[in-house]
């Protein structure tokens, strides 16, 4: 199905099931422990062995010697594969450093051997017996030292006359902001079971966001045919971008399986996840804003630096600055500095979260310089067109309503107006606001539907990474076919199913439901043809045309009817800016003597098109907000700038926000639809929730204390 804007009223404008709150249909399986995660697949691939990775303890250099004799002779060991045993594996485009093979070490904790044994304990203790000698090289590990020496890359865009705007401005700002490197810290670490025991067909049970990409990456890595690979990832215990790509767990399990002739399961031990897998790169961002005396922004100049292994792209935080606010002149540049820290890649709202963490503090600072309310300042500088290309409108943008509704519901009028002036005993109270803007892309997405005796089975390789895909897909199919939610079974995360968008970039929910809808329309056509009906309606388990009605259970005489389709999104999207928006309001208390920071109240008002399921969408919102509190107050990978690894590589020292850090949180979705997005007029919400949150917390801290912190995370030592 080719999708072009659907401005007409459609089925989903009169929806019975889509848009209504429904608990997750997979919820019971999950809370009763019956949803099988990759490492727990005892039901597949008999006689599994266990793999354990050995990882490099230098950040850069060569391995000159490895001796695995003792490991191979250790109890229970079935196979050992060292990186010197095989040629460097081909790299899929998405992997910046090779995942295995050869003598080069490109980053700390790069995998250099896998030991396969009967038990985890045997594999782990044997891995410790492998002798490794290195020739170490000096690497570059300190972003803060590197960025000032670096010549910035050419601007990504440069419109208007930025220099003149600054010269003529009534008010200007020029500050430097820093965001920390962050780890996805998903509950379930990277884990795979691979059966490649005969070196022919490869079957993979894994935890991955993108079935089709990963299958392709595996084919390239091992130079085998895609068709020889089958992948399953029906349940994923969190991804946040860390499981978008093929990682070492799958590669090592495959090598171990081939070498041992048995299926092998392998999970990255938590302390190896941080430096072996990917992380969000830290950034240093210089931001300048110019405005006239009335508070109208005339120019932005945003120049950012992040780090990457050679060949990668780093964390680009300047894109939101290009289109969030009005202003005739703007220049943005991002320079990815090639360094030797572990591999940086996507993490929830990659770029957007880091960029808005800086931009939305800068907006607060500008409002203060102008003597304006920060909500009013943002409203004044709203834009309904792409400021870099005014011929390109936003398809549907209600940022101003987000700010207005948020201010009203939060009680913004009654806030502390003078920084450092509101106290409750020993606690200083502050209020902050920040905006959020995240694009709403869509990707072609396919699905297959099977009608069996009035029940519908949906099959797509879409994943559910904790987001609610199972549920919104069931809702979509039930709506389209006139069935109940209970009549629909959803099967996800399997390479035998049609290729979907997968879960990433906030495109999953909107794209995958559109693909399922397309497949349902195909099935409807087939049913209509069989019954000789013209444009029938599908309601209450029946097909209806005029006075004729047939129960769906009876349309196929006991046969199964199967239909498959893929939604393709038209080029018209290039002529529009399609985005999601939010306003975040936060109240904090800061202890006047210890600097302890407590978030007390959070409110997000979001504009993200039709909300497919308010329950699962709210969970995305509060999940993102919680992660935003982590970014603001605690999350930060600390590089050892001498030895080139992240020191806090476990969940005891890499702190994430937990329940006790999060008091009252509310998420309001505006009742909007975006006809340019999908037939369901829906947009994604998975990454919007984290955008802007850190700055709202930062602005509240400033309001509480009068101390302006521009470096994340804002630990209490920065306040005293
Ligand atoms: Mo997302 S960072 O594309 O999973």
From TrEMBL:
Report the gene name.
paoC
MF terms (GO), sorted A to Z: carboxylate reductase activity
The keyword Oxidoreductase is assigned to this record: yes
- Which PANTHER family does the entry link to? ALDEHYDE OXIDOREDUCTASE MOLYBDENUM-BINDING SUBUNIT PAOC (PTHR11908:SF123), XANTHINE DEHYDROGENASE (PTHR11908)
**What keywords appear on the UniProt entry?**
Oxidoreductase
Enzyme Commission designation: 1.2.99.6
Write the protein's name.
Aldehyde oxidoreductase molybdenum-binding subunit PaoC
Q: Where is the Aldehyde oxidase/xanthine dehydrogenase a/b hammerhead domain?
A: 32-138
Keyword Ribonucleoprotein applies: no
UniProt xrefs under InterPro entries:
Ald_Oxase/Xan_DH_a/b, Ald_Oxase/Xan_DH_a/b_sf, Ald_Oxase/xanthine_DH-like, AldOxase/xan_DH_MoCoBD1, AldOxase/xan_DH_MoCoBD2, AldOxase/xan_DH_Mopterin-bd_sf, PaoC-like
Q: Which NCBIfam families match?
A: peri_hyde_PaoC
Q: Which Pfam families match?
A: Ald_Xan_dh_C (PF01315), MoCoBD_1 (PF02738), MoCoBD_2 (PF20256)
């Amino acid at each position: 199905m080719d999708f072009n804007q659907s401005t007409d009223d459609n089925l989903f404008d009169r929806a019975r099931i889509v848009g209504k709150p429904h608990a997750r249909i997979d919820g019971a399986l999950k809370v009763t422990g019956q949803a099988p995660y990759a490492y727990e697949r005892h039901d597949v691939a008999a006689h599994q062995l266990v793999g354990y990775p050995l990882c490099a303890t230098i950040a850069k250099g060569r391995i000159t010697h490895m001796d695995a004799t003792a490991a191979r002779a250790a109890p229970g060991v079935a196979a050992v594969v060292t990186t010197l045993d095989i040629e460097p594996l081909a790299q899929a485009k998405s992997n910046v450093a090779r995942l295995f093979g050869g003598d080069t070490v490109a980053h700390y904790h790069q995998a250099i051997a896998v030991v396969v044994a009967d038990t985890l304990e045997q594999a782990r203790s044997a891995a410790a017996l492998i002798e490794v000698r290195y020739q170490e090289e000096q690497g570059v590990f300190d972003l803060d030292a590197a960025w000032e020496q670096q010549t910035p890359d050419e601007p990504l865009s440069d419109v208007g006359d930025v220099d003149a705007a600054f010269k003529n401005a009534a008010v200007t700002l020029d500050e430097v902001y820093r965001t920390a490197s962050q780890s996805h810290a998903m509950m379930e670490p990277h884990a795979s079971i691979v059966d490649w025991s005969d070196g022919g067909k490869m079957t993979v049970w894994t935890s991955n966001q993108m079935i089709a990409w990963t299958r392709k990456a595996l084919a390239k890595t091992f130079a085998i045919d895609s068709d020889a690979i089958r992948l399953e990832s029906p349940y994923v215990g969190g991804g946040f971008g860390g499981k978008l790509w093929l990682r070492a767990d799958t590669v090592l399990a495959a090598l171990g399986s081939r070498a041992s002739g048995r299926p092998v399961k392998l999970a990255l031990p938590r302390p190896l996840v941080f430096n072996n897998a990917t992380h969000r790169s830290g950034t240093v961002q210089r931001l300048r804003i110019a405005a006239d005396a009335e508070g109208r922004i005339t120019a932005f100049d945003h120049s950012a630096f992040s780090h990457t292994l050679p060949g990668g792209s780093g964390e680009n935080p300047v894109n939101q600055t290009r289109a969030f606010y009005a202003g005739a002149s703007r220049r943005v540049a991002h320079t990815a500095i090639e360094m030797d820290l572990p591999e940086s890649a996507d993490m929830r709202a990659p770029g957007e979260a880091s960029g808005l963490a800086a931009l939305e503090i800068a907006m607060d600072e500008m409002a203060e310089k102008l003597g304006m309310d920060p909500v009013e300042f943002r409203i004044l500088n709203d834009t309904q067109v792409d400021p870099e290309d005014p011929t390109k409108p936003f398809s549907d943008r209600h940022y101003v309503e987000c700010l207005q509704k948020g201010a009203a519901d939060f009680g913004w009028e009654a806030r502390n107006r003078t920084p450092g002036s509101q106290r409750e005993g020993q606690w200083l109270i502050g209020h902050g606001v920040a905006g959020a803007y995240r694009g709403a892309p869509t990707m072609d997405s396919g699905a297959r539907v099977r009608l069996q005796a009035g029940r519908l089975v949906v099959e797509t390789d879409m994943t559910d990474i904790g987001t609610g895909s199972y549920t919104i897909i069931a809702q979509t199919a039930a709506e389209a076919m006139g069935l109940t939610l209970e009549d629909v079974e959803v099967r996800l995360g399997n390479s035998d199913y049609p290729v979907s968008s997968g879960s990433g970039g906030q495109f999953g929910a909107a794209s995958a439901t559109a693909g399922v809808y397309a497949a349902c329309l195909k099935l409807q056509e087939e049913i209509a043809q069989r019954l000789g009906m013209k444009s029938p309606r599908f309601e209450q388990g029946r097909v209806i045309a005029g006075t004729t009605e047939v129960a769906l259970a009876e349309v196929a005489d006991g046969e199964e009817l199967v239909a498959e389709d893929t939604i393709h999104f038209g080029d018209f999207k290039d002529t529009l800016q399609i985005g999601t928006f939010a306003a975040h309001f936060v109240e904090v208390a800061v202890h006047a003597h210890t600097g302890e920071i407590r978030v007390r109240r959070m409110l997000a008002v979001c504009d993200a098109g039709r909300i497919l399921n308010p329950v699962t969408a709210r969970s995305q919102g509060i999940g993102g907000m919680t992660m935003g509190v982590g970014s603001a107050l605690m999350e930060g990978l600390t590089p050892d700038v001498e030895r080139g690894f992240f020191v806090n590589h476990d969940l005891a020292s890499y702190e994430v926000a937990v329940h006790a850090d999060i008091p009252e949180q509310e998420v309001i979705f505006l009742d909007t639809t975006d006809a340019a997005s999908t037939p369901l007029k829906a947009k994604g919400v998975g990454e919007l929730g984290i955008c802007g949150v850190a700055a709202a917390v930062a602005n509240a801290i400033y309001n509480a204390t009068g101390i302006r912190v521009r470096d994340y995370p804002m630990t209490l030592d920065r306040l005293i």
